[in-house]
Design goal:
Blueprint: H1 2-10, H2 19-28, E1 51-53, H3 67-78, E2 83-86, H4 88-94, E3 103-106, H5 110-116, E4 120-123, E5 129-134, E6 137-143, E7 153-154, E8 168-171, E9 176-179, H6 185-191, E10 199-202, E11 207-210, H7 214-219, E12 222-223, H8 229-235, H9 238-250, E13 253-254, H10 256-259, H11 262-265, H12 274-285, H13 290-299, H14 302-306, H15 308-312, H16 320-337, H17 344-351, H18 353-363, H19 370-385, H20 392-408, H21 413-420, H22 425-437, H23 445-454, H24 457-465
Parallel strand pairs: 3-6, 7-8, 12-13
Antiparallel strand pairs: 1-11, 2-3, 2-10, 4-5, 5-6, 8-9, 10-11
Helix pairs in contact: 9-12, 9-13, 13-16, 17-20, 18-19, 19-20, 20-22, 22-23
């Protein structure tokens, strides 16, 4: 629709008139030198292979762009460098959404960027980027990337020491190990993952540069990989997760060629570090479309790699385990839509609850106690840690939510008062309701705790009194028996 309206109103999009206009400057300056004439101009670039969308042909306005991002674009341009707003920020603005962050791509190297901005920090080894911090906002700036040297191949077990000093390196399976070969904007566009992310916005005339038909794909709500999908997934297997995340978040269909190798290549994710997979998992589940994401994880077998035990014991869509996962993701989406917080501890408590219950049924008997639960919980979390490195502060909280499930069932005065005062009570209570909604039979436990919370002090005291002789206060210390005085030696004579 965007493209059709543009053509109807404005005719065919403009392209550079003659290649000579765009190659002349490249003869006198390298891609990473500032323009000798001062401010960089779009006409200095060879854009003969791109569509140029003029300001009156698109809906992006500077009013919707972060002032800090604009500041970076103008400062780089004034210094003679080409700089563009790129990626998800441009895509989201075209879709009428508010971007979560703004990324910039430029022909300035990280060192040149740092010379221009005192607040610049160069981060990363595999992929050098620059973070510009403005208060709580971070603008990410990257240098145009180019293709890799095919000779720099290493086996998958190669250490960082083996590739130290190299700008480009890849593994025997095709995964990129170093990605610091710089090029021009044409190279950079072809190195991006999806066509919808290969759109460049410039403050020089406020135009959009489209190298890969991204605007058409946005119009058709289609997620299409740039280049050969299998090769691109091998370069970075996390693109499998990005495909699922964008498809769910944007409500896009994954184009058939982009979709075709996903199941076969899902095991490549096993080569990604657990720490990175944890971060990517959070992005998947906290983007506002967790329920849809869960369905896609199942469809493309990626879930079997990320959460093998969870998927194995929740394949029946009508089982309480599967319903609990669906409801947990749905509730997560609702909370995010209401600007409420979502803790990874609760997400992992839900995701790993099915394998925990299966382990308890298998090894803990019919009525496992708290010790058996703790042992099984440790095993389940340890197995998951080998895949996604859950930080300790979250794994501890997950265990506490689980442990409180057993304590919530013990309705004596002492147990109720203790659980109600626990810092994780609210999360444990929410999890209890989730279990009931999923079909677990808990004999009205959720309603009892709901009534207790909603009652005033008198009502709570009446409910506690109805529990019987539940003890309160401190236990009486048992007095040690007095030691008998030692008998005199002569008494037994």
């Amino acid at each position: 629709m965007l493209r059709k309206i543009s053509k109807a109103l404005f005719g065919k999009r403009s392209k550079p008139t003659t290649p000579e206009q765009h190659t002349a400057s490249s003869d006198s300056t390298s891609p990473h030198e500032a323009s000798p004439a001062g401010r960089a101009r779009l006409n200095d670039l060879d854009l003969s292979q791109a569509d140029i969308i003029e300001r009156d042909e698109h809906c992006i306005s500077r009013r919707h762009i972060s002032p800090n991002a604009l500041k970076v674009l103008y400062r780089l341009g004034d210094a003679g460098y080409h700089a563009f707003l790129v990626g998800g920020g441009v895509r989201d603005l075209l879709l009428g959404d508010t971007p979560k962050d703004f990324d910039i791509s430029t022909n300035a190297t990280p060192e040149q960027i740092k010379q221009l901005f005192r607040n610049a920090m160069i981060i990363g080894r595999r992929f050098k980027i620059v973070h510009l911090r403005f208060g709580r906002e971070i603008i990410e700036v990257t240098t145009f990337r180019a293709h890799h040297d095919a000779q720099n191949e290493f086996d998958d077990s190669s250490s960082n020491r083996s590739i130290k000093g190299l700008d480009s390196a890849h593994s025997s399976t095709g995964m990129i190990l170093r990605d610091n070969v710089y090029g021009d904007i044409n190279d950079d566009a072809l190195r991006r993952d999806f066509t919808a992310n290969a759109l460049y916005y410039t403050v020089d005339g406020f135009r959009i540069i489209d190298f890969a038909g991204g605007l058409d794909d946005i119009d058709r709500r289609l997620l299409r990989m740039i280049g050969d999908p299998a090769t691109r997934y091998r370069e970075d297997p996390v693109r499998l997760l990005r495909a699922i995340r964008f498809a769910a978040k944007l409500d896009f269909d994954i184009e058939k060629n982009t979709r075709a190798p996903m199941n076969e290549l899902a095991p490549l994710l096993e080569s990604i570090s657990p720490a990175r997979l944890f971060d990517e998992t959070l992005k998947l589940l906290t983007g506002g479309q967790a329920e849809k994401t869960l369905a896609l994880l199942r469809q493309f077998r990626v879930g079997d790699i990320l959460f093998p035990a969870t998927m194995a014991c929740s394949r029946d869509a009508n089982s309480p385990e599967a319903r609990l996962l669906t409801l947990a993701m749905r509730n997560t989406d609702k909370r995010l839509a209401q600007d409420k917080t979502v803790t990874p501890a609760f997400l992992y408590a839900a995701l790993l609850w099915p394998p925990l219950q299966q382990a308890l049924r298998k090894h803990g008997g019919d009525n496992p106690g708290i010790t058996e639960q703790q042992d099984m919980a440790n095993r389940v979390i340890l197995d998951q840690l080998r895949i996604t490195a859950i930080p300790k502060r979250f794994s501890i909280a997950t265990r506490e939510i689980w442990e409180l499930q057993l304590r919530l069932q013990t309705r004596t005065r002492r147990a109720v008062e203790s659980v109600y005062a626990h810092p994780r009570f609210r999360a444990a209570y929410d999890f209890l309701l989730l279990r009931e909604d999923a079909g677990e039979e808990l004999d009205g436990l959720g309603q009892w705790w709901t009534d207790f919370q909603n009652g005033d002090k008198n009502q709570q005291e009446q409910m506690l009194a109805g529990l019987g002789k539940g003890q309160t206060g401190k236990r009486r210390r048992r007095r040690k028996p007095r030691r008998k005085p030692a008998e005199k030696a002569g008494d037994n004579a």
